[in-house]
Design goal:
Length: about 240
């Protein structure tokens, strides 16, 4: 039984001392995506609130992992190496299930904290910081992160080797979860990877390209002249 978790630090208000909340949600993977994304179906369950450390606090990563480990400790004992649990299904049968952590939904700061890697590093591969993606000079050296290798380096006290690949010299609790690769828990989502990532970068590049050729106004006017069509977004103002 695949388990999907989600967490996001949320700013609540500035009127009561800069209040924040850090909810932790959980769902299972055998629920259809359209049903899971419908709010009224309550497919996501709030399982806990992660403590929000004050500004300037140290060891935030360790406190976060400690809190999440406490909440998910039962799932670790019920995993494939544990006793499992019996679940009732809609067909009337009862089956033995073993929850496995399969994905974690969150923005980049959340994924960095989960993977225990340095900021601006990739959570999936060991590409160096600041290297353009797909650069031919670094492509042969790009390897996926291996938690077994990191665990051996940590046991042998090879701290410099861990810092070289951008990994914090801390035992990641997700290394102990059976059949779970913490560096593949990251899942792309529409908001952060598409709208705020790919689409936003493409728009900035397009604006720069149009301004360099003095055709930005012409392009904006043509956007307003596109005829209306069902399902097609119509822009009444010039493109900017």
């Amino acid at each position: 039984m695949l388990v999907i978790c989600a967490s996001a630090k949320t700013h609540l208000t500035n009127f009561s001392g800069d209040q924040h909340a850090w909810p932790l949600y959980l769902t299972i993977g055998n629920i259809r995506k359209d049903i899971r994304h419908t709010r009224k179906n309550c497919a996501w369950v709030l399982v806990g609130l992660i403590p929000c450390p004050p500004k300037g606090a140290k060891n935030i990563d360790e406190s976060w992992h400690s809190a999440v480990g406490t909440v998910l400790s039962q799932m670790w004992h019920l995993g494939i190496t544990g006793r499992g649990l019996k679940c009732d299904f809609v067909d009337g049968f009862q089956r033995q299930c073993y929850p496995l952590l399969a994905a974690w939904v969150g923005d980049y700061p959340e994924q960095v904290m989960i993977a225990e890697v340095s900021y601006a590093s990739c959570c999936v591969c060991e590409i160096p910081k600041g290297v353009p993606m797909g650069h031919s000079a670094f492509r042969p050296h790009d390897t996926s992160r291996d938690q077994h290798i990191y665990s051996e380096l940590l046991e042998a006290n090879h701290i410099d080797a861990l810092h070289t690949v951008g990994v914090h010299p801390i035992c990641n609790q997700f290394w102990q979860y059976p059949l779970c690769n913490v560096y593949w828990l990251w899942q792309p989502d529409e908001l952060h990877q598409l709208l705020l990532g790919l689409v936003k970068d493409l728009l900035h590049w397009l604006l720069k390209y149009l301004k360099a050729r003095n055709v930005k106004d012409q392009f904006g006017n043509r956007c307003t002249l596109v005829p209306r069509y069902p399902g097609l977004q119509h822009f009444s103002k010039p493109f900017d």
